[in-house]
Specification:
The radius of gyration is 23 Å and the shape is globular. The protein has two domains: about 30-310, Alpha/Beta hydrolase fold, catalytic domain (Rossmann fold, 3-Layer(aba) Sandwich), CATH 3.40.50.1820; about 325-410, no CATH class. Helix 5 (about 150-160) crosses helix 7. It has an eight-stranded mixed beta sheet with strand order 1-2-4-3-5-6-7-8, sandwiched between helices. Strands 10-9-11 form a three-stranded antiparallel beta sheet. By secondary structure, it is of the alpha/beta class. The protein has helices at about 5-20, 85-90, 110, 120-135, 150-160, 175-180, 180-190, 215-230, 250-265, 300-310, and strands spanning about 30-35, 45-50, 60-65, 95-105, 145-150, 165-170, 195-200, 235-240, 270-275, 280, 295, 325-330, 335-340, 355-360, 360-365, 390-395, 405-410.
Length: about 425
Amino acid sequence: MNCSAVVSFLLLLSATLAVHSASFEPEGRLLDLALPPGEGDRFQQADFSFWLADPSQPVRGIIIHQHGCTNASPDKHPPVTVDAHWRALARKHQCALLSPQYQVAGKCDEWNDPESGSERALLRALEDFAQRTGRPELVEAPWVLWGHSGGSSWSAQMIVRHPGRVLAASFRGGCHKQFGVPEFRAQFGPVAREIPMLFVWGKRETVPTSSHYVSWEPMNAMYRDLRAQGGHVARVVDPRSEHGCDDSRLLIIPFFDQVLTARLASEQMPGALMDLASLEARESTPENLRDPALAWLPSPEIASLWQEFSRTGTLKPVSPRLTAPKLKAERNADGHILLTWQVKPALVGGLRALRIHRDGKVWKQLGVLKDEAFVATARDAPPEGLRDSFLVDERTSSGENPVYTLTYLDAGGNESPASPPVSAP
C-alpha cells in the first residue's frame, strides 16, 4: 500500500470511529437520601435529591428548589435534579442542586414550618451529602432559595432563621401566613432588604374569586415594605397563569444567573428600575430607589426579560447562542441500539423539546411540542420526554446500522446545531 493509500485509509478509519463514538464528560453525581421523622418532627418522611456537576471542584452555593403543599407524585413532578435547565444554572456557578420532598399526613405546616422538623432534616441531609461527596463546605455553603406556594412560606422563614446565608430568592405564590403578619414583615425586612428577590404571581390569582387570592395583598404589603427600605426586590405578574409555575423559570433562572455572577464574585450589580404600571425603565435616583411603584432588577438585561415576561408570560429568545448536544449509540444485550445524550441548554430560553434524527430524517420528538404549552409542570418539574437522557431504538436488528443526530429546541422554538453523527458498531 503506497503512502497516499495509507493516509486515505487512516482518514476513513478516523471518520468511522467518530461516527461510532461520542466523548461524554461526566454528568455529575446524583444522590438520594430518605430520612424518617425524628423526635418531635411532624412530617412522615423527608426525601432529598441532590446533584453536583463536579465533586472535584469546591461548592460555591446550594440551589434549594422547594415544592409547595400536598404530597406530589414523583412520577408527575420529578425533582429538578434531573432537569437540564436547572442543572445548567448550577453547573455554571459551581453550585449544588437540592430538591427536598416532604410527605405529610395532614396539613402543610407539618413540613413548611421549619420548626416542624424540615429545617433539622435539611441540615442533616447537607451533612450526609457533604460526607458522601467529600465536600465539607456543603454544610456551611450559602443558599439560593426557590419556593412555590408552601415552599415560598418555608423559604421566607428560613431567610429570617439564617440571616446572611441566602444569596438570592424567588417566591412563586404563597407566604400569606408570613407576609400577612406585620410582626413577621418587621423581622423579614431588615434581613432580606439586600437579598435580590423575585416575587412571581399569576394574574388569575390576583382576583378575589381565586382560592389563592389570600396571598396577593400580603405579598404586595411585603413588597412595598421592602422597596420603601430600598430593598432589592421585583414583583412580576404572569399574565397566563393562576397558581402554577408554568413558564416562570424562564425569568427566574436568568435572574438567579445574573445575581450569582455578581454575588459570588463580590461585585456590585448595576441594578435597573422598572415601572409596575407602564413596564418602562426609570432613572435610579435616590427617591426612585425606595419607590414601591418601581421594581428593582439586577441589570438592564434582566429588566428587559422582566418586561417581556410581564406582557407575554413567556420568553422567546431571538438569535440565541445554542451549543450542539452530545449523542452516543451502543447496542444493548437485545441487539437494539441504546441512545444516550447530554444537553446543556442556554440559561435564557431553556429547553422545550428534543429532536432525534435517524438517517437524516426526524425520527423522534420528545418534550413540549405545542408552541403555547408551558415548558414545565405546575410544580416546575421537567415535562414528560425531558426527564430521561436515553432511548432505545427497538426497530433495529443486528443487520441494521442507522446514523443518528440530536438537536434541541429552546422556549422560542430556536433549534440547536446538530450533534456529531453516531451509529452503533
